[in-house]
Amino acid sequence: MRQNADTLVIDTVEKLAALITEKRASRKVYHEEHQRITNEVSRLQEAVNKSKNNYEQALEHYKSSKTKYEDQYLKGKPGRKLDELKERYQKACKKLHQVHNDYVLLLCEAADYERDFRTVLLPGLLEYQERVQEDMIDKWRSLLSEVCELTDTTQGRYAQLQAEVASAVSAISPKTEYSSFSETNKSSPPDPVSFEFCNELLGDGVGSLQAGQLAVDSLTVDSLRLRLNDIEHSLREVTTQLREKQNLLNQHETEVVNIKTNSLQDSNIGSRLAVLKRASDVLRRELNELRCRESWLQHQHRLIHDPLAALGCEEAPQPWEATQVNGDSHQRSDSLSLKSRSAAIKELLRKPFNRSKTSDSQASTPPTPTRANTEERATEPDQNSLLEMTPGGQAEVPQAVNGVQELTYDPDRCLEDEPWFHGVLPREEVVRLLVNEGDYLVRETTRNDEQQIVLSVCWGSHKHFIVQTTPEGHYRFEGPAFPTIQELILHQHGCGLPVTNKSGAILRNPIFRERWELNNDDVELRDKIGRGNFGDVYKARLRDSGLEVAVKTCRVTLPDEQKKKFLQEGRILKQYDHPNIVKFIGICVQKQPIMIVMELVPGGSLLSFVRNHKGQLTVKQMMGMCLDTASGMAYLESKNCIHRDLAARNCLVGHRSIVKISDFGMSREEEEYIVSDGMKQIPIKWTAPEALNFGKYTSLCDVWSYGVLCWEIFSSGEVPYQGYSNTKAREMIDSGYRMLAPPNTPEEMYQLMLKCWQYEPENRPHFSDIYAAVDSIYAPL
Ligand code: ADP
Whose CA is nearest to atom 25 of ligand 1? Predict the structure, then answer.
């Protein structure tokens, strides 16, 4: 008994102390682990709130910078301030898109974690704890058995007590012991937290941003690619850790099997088995967590990868922000209805630059009489005759051979010289040139200040592929890489395979530059002669023919939308051929700045001309100017073109004071054109009441402006309704006031002006009648 008592006091108590220490340690581990995985939910909650705040701030900043930029733009004041505001706006837009994507990805991560926290991680930890506790209960039971044995006195009076103790001890079952403990002590799991996109953020819509969906556009595509790289890197790390831990677990399991099958008898075996069991439990828990992490990462990977893969090497779509201000009629593009968008596209398709179509339509239009072609000016050498030579002379590329000619590669020819390279021709113009399946061309575009070469192909719809650059500096799409873009295109044309498998687009007919697409280097800019809305106007010389021309430049920093609007003037002008309409020669889009080349009209604007010649012009000369303008306008009317900004400042004076109508920036080719809002830049004092009141434009509105223009001529460039504000002038007109005749205005001419200013458009004369009326006053003079 003494020996037993000694063992009990020394060994058993020591084991008991160790078991208590172990129990405490396991409790600590449990609490720490529990804390760790629970804290992650709180961390994610905080991160989501923070990300939402960032979103709100970015949205606020974006909206304010957009408003500032639009206000400045609508004030029509180009210059540094506008450029700065534009840059700020673009930055804010980019930031918003990035913050949007961060928010979407974080929500995805948080929702995944939260789900697994409740369904995998927390149950996993509890299961682990259960196993650890069961082990310890087992040990505790052995200890109690030991105590039982050691205290067995086998004396009768103890026998009953001893039997009770022994049976109680043997009744201890680790499984039920702990489960009854955990049953009475368990706490209910936390309520699920929902991580969902806050729809209020987007409210009435922010462009193309969609709740819970990544924005994949030219602003975000680069950052998304970087993010995808990061995720792929993390996935690789997780896969490696999974593999290593699984291997270790397998080793432990094999060792346990070996020990058991070989029934190795060793005093350390028991403790070794216990160590292996504990280590395996830990590994299983860690594997569980890693698998969750792997699935979260895979989810995020899919979210980013799928839209990027769908894009392939196609150009990322322009974000809606690129069209923030619609130059046309100064409307905001976000307010443009789908219908008017498609109408605008149709308009683009309907009115090609195509020369042959234009000349056909011109041939079918009866010639409008002009002072120049009916009178003494008929013999005057008009610059227009020279112009006939220039466009063809300028273009280096053959015409009418699109698609039928075999492409050849000349290593000495640079990309810009390739006939199918169209420089910075805007995407809309490009789309208009690609008509048949397989039509293609190559162009340049700028994204995030980086120049990219784009292959545009008509295949079903219009597809735009960015030429990819390999690390060696070669060029490719999905197939092989080539040292030059020319060789790549030649290969793609010759091999007959699709540019990308997804698009199926095959290159069949290279579309060559049209002859009005001049090279920027063909034009030698000389003196600055004016300043337009989009940029400076220069006197210039065409290198080949030596012809002096006027060149309107478009500031490089203007948004794409404005550049398109700038070119629109060229598209409209190109179709017209009339001595009283300034002549279009070509556009230069091989590189920036894009330019419109036109006939040089040396006398400057009609407004400054009449002001500078105040008191020197005869009535006949002034009537001649009215006749020129009427002739040009009758021509435009016959073409269904509404000028919308007819005024002395927008006409030019050429040789022998011939007047040429210019500045077609606001023109529309339609019988009737309705502007729904954004009338800010309207020249109120020149505009007819129905256009001001209802936004309704027809050629009869131009007739009203023509009356004001004639008044400007006879008043030597006075300001109409002098001394009255725009608003006051509008009120006066609505209440029936009309300007008086300037001194020396022939009475019939003033009567004609009054007819032009009839309040109801249907009571005004058409330009064909006006021409006849003005001619009948002019002829006898
Ligand atoms: P925008 O349409 O961009 O406002 P404008 O057509 O008003 O530009 O041109 C600005 C100025 O440039 C005109 O007032 C005129 O002095 C000069 N200018 C424009 N076109 C010509 C031209 N074809 N020949 C001579 N001068 C021109």
Answer: 601
pLDDT digits (tens, 9 = 90+) for 326-382: 333 333 233 323 333 334 323 322 333 232 333 333 333 444 555 554 443 333 333
Q: How far is the CA of 361 from the centre of ligand 1 (A)?
A: 27
List ligand 1's pocket residues with C-beta within 6 A.
529-530, 532-534, 537, 550, 552, 582, 598-601, 604-605, 652, 662-663, 665
The per-residue pLDDT for range 206-238, each reduced to its tens digit, is: 667 888 888 887 778 878 888 888 999 999 999
Q: How far is the CA of 596 from the centre of ligand 1 (A)?
A: 11
- Domain ranges within the chain, ordered by starting residue: 1-199+340-350, 216-316, 383-388+517-599, 400-510, 606-778
Annotated catalytic sites, by residue?
A: 645
Q: Is 533 annotated as a binding residue?
A: yes
Question: In CATH, what is the architecture of 400-510?
Answer: 2-Layer Sandwich (3.30)
Q: 1-199+340-350 is classed in which CATH architecture?
A: Up-down Bundle (1.20)
Question: Is the link from the previous residue into 593 a cis peptide, with omega within 30 of 0?
Answer: yes
Domain covering 216-316: architecture: Orthogonal Bundle (1.10)
pLDDT tens-digit series, residues 91-111: 999 999 999 999 999 999 999
- Which atom of ligand 1 is least distant from the CA of 665? 2
Number of neighbours of residue 508 by Cβ within 10 angstroms: 16
Fold observed for domain 383-388+517-599: Phosphorylase Kinase; domain 1 (3.30.200)
pTM beyond 0.85, yes or no: no
The pLDDT tens digits for 277-314 are: 889 999 999 999 999 999 999 999 999 988 887 776 66
Q: Taking all residues of the chain, what is their mean pLDDT, rounded to a whole number?
A: 82
Distance 649 CA to ligand 1 centre (A): 9
Looking at ligand 1, which residue's alpha carbon is closest to its atom 20?
550
Strand, helix or coil at 547? coil
Task: Identify the three-state secondary structure at position 101.
Answer: helix
Q: Which residues contact 653 (CB under 8 A, 6 or more apart)?
A: 601, 603, 604, 605, 606, 609, 625, 659, 660
pLDDT for res 328: 32
Q: Name every residue whose Cβ is closer than 8 Å to that of residue 165 and which is 6 or more positions away in sequence.
A: 148
- Chosen CATH of 606-778 out of 2.40.50.140, 1.10.8.60, 1.10.510.10, 3.30.9.10: 1.10.510.10
User: What number does the ligand 1 atom closest to the CA of 649 have?
Assistant: 14
C-alpha span between 72 and 23 (Å, rounded) = 73
Question: Binding site annotation covers 620?
Answer: no
* Residue 367, pLDDT score: 45
Q: What tokens does 10 get?
A: 């020394």
